Amino acid sequence: MTHVAQQVRRADVCAVAIADCFRGDGEILANPIGNLPVLGGRLARALHEPRLVMTDGEAHLAGEVHPLGAAPEVVEGWNPYRRMFDVLWNGRRHVMMGASQIDRYGNQNIAAIGPDPDRPARQLIGFRGAPGNTINNPTSYWVPNHGTRVFVEKVDLVCGIGYDRAAELGEVARFHDLRQVITNLAVLDFETPDHRMRLRSVHPGVTVEEVVAATGFELAIPDEVPQTRLPTPDELAAIERLDPGGLRLREVKD
């Protein structure tokens, strides 16, 4: 790593990579789930996507870009749980979820680990909104610990559907749109002819070989894999303002 890269923490690189996921979205509801995704979503709204609509994490639409852990001082509207479905079914949302398991086509599992879903070895949070999210809205994923236990050949239970299953569903899945997978090691996407997961970039200090070793299936790898871009000074200043307690650093350590 260069001297400049050493001054930037891995969590900061992840935050701007997440913010870039929402670049070009315009006036839709950004629905990132988790500290680093929320930080990245707010960073996007603060610096390059001012028309993004974001919640306060509960039942209000925030009228300002407020720090993690704080309530917004300005509220634009009320957004109770039942109203979220109106947004979801109209496709006016880009959600970023987590993934306990994910395969090469983007099939995601957050419900249970083990071969028998009726008697799982590990019970997780359940299907939640994953099926509806992936059918109706642009969807991205955040994985803070890139490893072979998460990136698997076959998920134990499909919650969010991947490109192979979306193709089988045909017109039912016409709004299916998996965008990117951001991890603590790399940025991945599905921009291949068969929508197989591709290595888009590696974070500073990470090699292609390290990402391959941490992935339990064969990735599509371009001839040239760039480094994930570093935050600009303005982005670093905004990150410090939006995460004064350093919550991002508990999730991704250098």
Describe the structure.
29% of the residues lie in helices and 19% in strands. It has nine helices and twelve strands. The strands form four sheets. Strands 1-4-9-10-11-12 form a six-stranded mixed beta sheet, sandwiched between helices. It has a two-stranded antiparallel ribbon with strand order 2-3. Strands 5-6 form a two-stranded antiparallel ribbon. Strand 10 (177-183) and strand 11 (186-189) form a beta hairpin. Mean pLDDT is 92; it is low at 1-6.
Q: Average pLDDT across residues?
A: 92
The total of beta strands comes to 12
Straight-line distance between termini: 12 Å
CATH class assignment:
Alpha Beta
Organism: Thermomonospora echinospora
Protein name: Acyl CoA:acetate/3-ketoacid CoA transferase, beta subunit
GO molecular function, one term: CoA-transferase activity
Pfam families: CoA_trans
Topology diagram in text:
Layout (H helix, E strand, L loop, with lengths): L2 H4 L3 H12 L7 E4 L2 H13 L12 E3 L12 E4 L2 H9 L3 E6 L2 E2 L5 E2 L2 E2 L8 E2 L6 H7 L1 E6 L19 H7 L7 E7 L2 E4 L8 E5 L5 H6 L19 H10 L4 H5 L3
Parallel strand pairs: 1-4, 4-9, 9-10
Antiparallel strand pairs: 2-3, 5-6, 7-8, 10-11, 11-12
Helix pairs in contact: 2-3, 3-8
